[in-house]
Amino acid sequence: MDKFKLEILTPNGVIFNDDIISVTLPGEEGEFGVLAHHASLSTLLEAGVVDIEKEDKSIESVLINWGVVQVDEQKVIVLVEGAVAIRGDSESAIAKSLENAKKLISDIADSGPAIASVSAKIESAAKRLL
Amino acid sequence: MANLKDIQRQIKSVSNTQKTTRAMKLVSTAKLRRAEELAKRSRLYAAKMNQVIAEIAGRIKCNKVGGIDNRCFIKIENPKMVDIVFVTADKGLCGGFNIQTIKATKKLIAQYQEQKVKVRLRGIGKKGIEFFKYNEVELFDEVTNLSSKPDKIRSDDFIKASIEDYKDGKIDGIHIIYNGYKNMITQELHVNQVLPVDTDQFDCSQAKESILDIEAQDEEHMLDSLVSKYVEYNMYYALIDSVAAEHSARMQAMDTATNNAKEMVKGLKVKYNKARQAAITTELIEIISGVESMK
Fold first, then answer.
1. How close A88 comes to chain B (CA, Å)?
2. Are A48 and A86 within 8 A, CB to CB?
3. In this structure, what CATH number is given to the domain that contains residue B136?
4. Separation in Å, CA of B197 to nearest CA in chain A
């Protein structure tokens, strides 16, 4: 499988910067996936979960609250305002990141059905790790 | 002859000042470390954000695709009114830090006035505001306690008015002037034109052939919200960069002040010793001549 570079940046620093196989992003118009050599595109992202398929085929989830993505043939840059990666080496670290993610969700003002599905998604992402 | 007591008093006062300046330097050093860390972390994001915007602007200009009517991306030929936002510190005692920003602001205002463009001045930070008020330059808007404690929400609120006015066509440009952090000993003055996005730098003959696909059906909406975020973030970044620069400038100024005080104490001590010796000599002469006259 071809791989490409993904960068996720927040005002507080880089949250992800690595070669990956595919990424699924929560676009404003709906979820969409990106593979290597995707046509260039820019769009806004809404609050949701970014699923990243890494080189070792493992999946990492990052929760974001707002963002903009720029896709071109070589790489994908995602700029987000707030983001929490659901990851950790131990159970407690994962639980902590889950807690942080929940806090970020509660900070997002509108609580529609979309938000509810987001929290369900991060819970399942955390379960997958445990 | 200089009074011994006077000199002693002077030495004491100078060394007290030295104590104060040294303490201020230490405080600034500590604060600088935190501010520097924050600015460094945000720098990458700010750079990427500008890069994304620049790329979109370049493609709009060269490919004449979506968003060509968006005011934010076209060069406005005959501007009538522009907003100038300057960021200074709330406190002084930081060398030329504030005055540099003020000078650059004055220069830009003069440039616009020459072209008969009206300027709306929006100030952040007590020092700059005081300066322009004293010189009877009208300030359209002002805010204090923001440059010393950058806060995303307050900074967004402040700049939002300008963005709205720009989009409504009331103003034709937004500039942000601030003194940014370069390294521990140098500050770098930034005069940034945030809106309209500068598209002059793009050479269309070298543009990539790839087409700009803005995914959203209403690309106006996407560009609008992206531009707002871009300006808001630029404003916020100006504030955090400025705070780091302020502390580094103050640290330096206080270091110089401490050294100066040290030099001054040294000079005064020499003067004091000279005066003391002169006094002793006079006293000796008096005693000896007294003894002589008794003979």
1. 22
2. no
3. 3.40.1380.10
4. 17
* DSSP β-ladder status, B141-143 and B186-195: unpaired
C-beta separation of B83 from B89 below 8 A: no
Structural domain boundaries, residue B285: 4-20+256-294
**CATH code for position B285:** 1.10.287.80
Look at the pTM and tell me if it is higher than 0.90: no
Q: What's the pLDDT score for residue B292?
A: 92
> Is the Cβ pair B45, A28 closer than 8 Å?
no
Q: Please list every residue in chain B whose beta carbon sits closer than 8 Å to the beta carbon of residue A14.
A: 44
In a domain, B29, yes or no: no
Could you give the number of structural domains in chain B? Answer: 2
**A-B contacts (CB, under 8 Å):** 65
Order of all β-strands in the sheet with B141-143: B141-143, B118-124, B81-87, B174-183, B186-195
Is residue A94 within 8 A of residue A84, CB to CB? The reply is no
Q: b or e along B103-123 (b: 16 or more beta carbons within 10 Å of the residue's beta carbon)? A: ebbeebbeebeeeebebbbbb
The ipTM estimated for the assembled molecules is: 0.78
Q: In Å, how far is B212's CA from the nearest CA of chain A?
A: 6
Asked if residue B31 is part of any domain, the answer here is no
Ordered domains of chain A (ranges, CATH): 1-130 (2.60.15.10)
Are the Cβ atoms of A39 and B225 closer than 8 angstroms?
A: no
What pLDDT, in 10s, does the model give residues A33-50? 999 888 888 888 888 889
Task: Indicate whether B147 and B276 sit together in one domain.
Answer: no
